[in-house]
């Protein structure tokens, strides 16, 4: 009996298509926005340090101009540079993103590559070979779309003509496919999984194993509205703009506009600046339907993952950080999550679910 194959396809959220393209390439939720933002800031600092060693040091015209211009690797709306994506893959997975126009590789058979990341201006998307088939995992698509081996070369060439840069990833042991249903929850969010056989038969529905999440089939549209209660091409009850019939360029512009708008449901900041940390409870079992995972990066660069209950307070999360960092008071730590990174001390009274920390990565540093 042949094994089923599952395909991970993150959908567009604001201008985070760079993050989506990496996760779709890796077929797992490998990077969060704040992790990529940290890489961007590190690259900026490395460039500034290099410039500071030149004539004039930190007072040189070039250095001061670079400071004034701000980051070259991330913009306020969450768009990352190719250098951030390259650095993320190289540092975590020892993978190289190579420009397809490189003389050493441009004459190689295109179907020998495992995956591609394409970029035009502020939009990134991935093409990935999964189970010997190529799939277009563009985050603005409703679902993955198959590209035959015969069509691949012409598709990529057409993208180049439209102004896309194409970067390649060779076959890599870490670019694994998912054939085990038990792995899905560990590798990525349930609403982004598709069963390959269903896609090939035209019967695929968003979110494999719908019972995992009561809100499967809902999410953020490109105009920033929820898709709950209607298809991505229909107006919602709030009069949301239809994206049906829009070109890719128009959809990207719509996403850019949405990313600059304030969130409709902004979490209220705790009225008290300090409060007692709650007592840390035992870690719930993975089988608990209310259990959620949170990743942590501690000040010593140690990475941990722990389960909590979604109705646990953020204070419970901070209690865990306090315990792992072996400090007397969390006030000595800067604890942030999300993008842009938010100080979690301001949300201690919220639940993990309300603070949207499920499957999030939390960065911890000493002040």
UniProtKB/TrEMBL annotation:
GO molecular function, one term: cysteine-type deubiquitinase activity
Catalytic residues (UniProt): 17, 17 (nucleophile), 123 (proton acceptor), 123, 138
InterPro entries (alphabetical): Ataxin-3, Josephin, Ubiquitin-like_domsf, UBX_dom
Alphabetized Pfam families for the sequence: Josephin, UBX
Composition-biased stretches (Gly residues): 230-241
CDD domains named among the record's database cross-references: UBX
SMART domains: Josephin
The EC number(s) this enzyme carries: 3.4.19.12
Top-rank taxon, per record: Eukaryota
Compartments it resides in: Nucleus
Keyword tags: Hydrolase, Nucleus, Protease, Thiol protease, Transcription, Transcription regulation, Ubl conjugation pathway
Annotated catalysed reactions: Thiol-dependent hydrolysis of ester, thioester, amide, peptide and isopeptide bonds formed by the C-terminal Gly of ubiquitin (a 76-residue protein attached to proteins as an intracellular targeting signal)
Domain Josephin: residue ranges: 4-184
Example GO BP: proteolysis
Cellular component GO terms, alphabetical: nucleus
Top-level EC class: hydrolase
Disordered as annotated region, ranges: 219-241
Keyword match Transcription: yes
Keyword Nucleotide-binding attributed: no
Domain UBX: 287-365
PANTHER family found in the cross-reference section: ATAXIN-3-RELATED
The protein's name: ubiquitinyl hydrolase 1
Organism of derivation: Chaetoceros tenuissimus
């Amino acid at each position: 009996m042949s094994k089923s194959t599952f395909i991970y396809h993150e959908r567009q959220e604001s201008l985070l298509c760079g993050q989506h393209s990496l996760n779709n390439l890796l077929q797992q939720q490998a990077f969060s926005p704040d992790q990529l933002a940290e890489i961007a800031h590190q690259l900026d600092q490395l460039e500034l340090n290099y410039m500071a060693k030149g004539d004039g040091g930190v007072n040189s015209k070039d250095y001061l101009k670079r400071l004034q211009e701000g980051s070259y690797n991330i913009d306020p709306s969450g768009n990352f540079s190719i250098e951030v994506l390259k650095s993320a893959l190289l540092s975590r997975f020892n993978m190289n993103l190579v420009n397809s126009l490189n003389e050493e590789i441009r004459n190689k058979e295109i179907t020998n590559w495992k995956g591609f990341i394409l970029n035009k201006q502020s939009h990134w998307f991935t093409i990935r070979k999964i189970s010997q088939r190529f799939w277009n995992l563009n985050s603005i698509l409703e679902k993955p779309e198959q590209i035959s081996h015969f069509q691949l070369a012409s598709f990529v060439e057409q993208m180049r003509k439209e102004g896309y840069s194409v970067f390649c990833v060779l076959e890599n042991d870490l670019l694994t496919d998912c054939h085990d249903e038990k792995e899905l929850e560990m590798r990525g969010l349930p609403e982004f999984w598709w069963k390959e056989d269903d896609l090939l038969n035209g019967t695929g529905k968003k979110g494999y194993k719908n019972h995992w999440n009561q809100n499967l089939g809902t999410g953020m549209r490109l105009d920033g509205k929820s898709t709950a209660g209607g298809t991505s091409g229909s107006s919602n009850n709030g009069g949301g703009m239809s994206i049906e019939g829009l070109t890719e360029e128009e959809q990207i512009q719509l996403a850019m506009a949405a990313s600059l708008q304030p969130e409709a449901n902004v979490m209220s900041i705790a009225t008290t600046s300090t409060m007692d940390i709650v007592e840390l409870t035992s870690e719930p079992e993975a089988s608990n339907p209310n259990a959620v995972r949170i990743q942590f990066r501690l000040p010593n660069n140690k990475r941990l993952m722990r389960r909590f209950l979604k109705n646990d307070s953020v204070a419970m999360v901070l209690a865990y950080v306090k315990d792992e960092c072996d400090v007397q008071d969390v006030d000595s730590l800067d604890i942030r999550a999300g993008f842009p990174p938010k100080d979690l001390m301001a949300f201690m009274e919220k639940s993990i679910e309300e603070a949207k920390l499920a499957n999030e990565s939390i960065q911890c540093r000493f002040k």
